[in-house]
Write a structure and sequence with these properties.
The chain is an alpha+beta fold. It contains 4 helices and 4 strands; from the N terminus they run αβββαβαα. It folds into 2 domains: 11-74, no CATH class; 76-113, no CATH class. The longest helix is centred in the middle third of the chain and has 12 residues, at 52-63.
């Protein structure tokens, strides 16, 4: 592999070793493309006043998993759709358009990609 080729690789597929080394698919609806480490969204399921490490330590014995969920996407656009469909962004979208799912954030609506 040449040096120029090595520098051009920015995205890496997320591999699931529990399923025989296959890649994790994109988490947006029915997209079948692979999820990349470059487009990973971390969702915190705890009170923001509680620190992340403390929440992980508290929830791990109770639920058997940490207080953070990670979602992998194939592109910035699919990740933007997902992030805009959760939390306060979803409430804002419902008030503006009547639906929370399938809207891009303000400022990203005119771009292609």
């Amino acid at each position: 592999m040449t040096t120029s080729r090595a520098h051009a690789i920015l995205q890496r597929k997320i591999i699931n070793h529990d399923k025989g080394g296959t890649w994790i698919p994109c988490c947006w609806e029915d997209c079948d493309r692979p999820g990349y480490a470059l487009y990973t969204h971390v969702y915190c399921e705890h009170d923001p006043r509680e620190g992340c490490e403390h929440a992980d330590r508290r929830l791990l014995p109770q639920a058997g998993r940490p207080a953070h969920l990670k979602f992998a996407f194939c592109s910035q656009r699919h990740m933007s759709y997902y992030v805009n469909a959760e939390g306060g962004n979803a409430l804002e979208s419902i008030a503006r358009t009547g639906r929370a799912h399938g809207n891009l954030p303000v400022g990203e609506r005119g771009r292609y990609g």
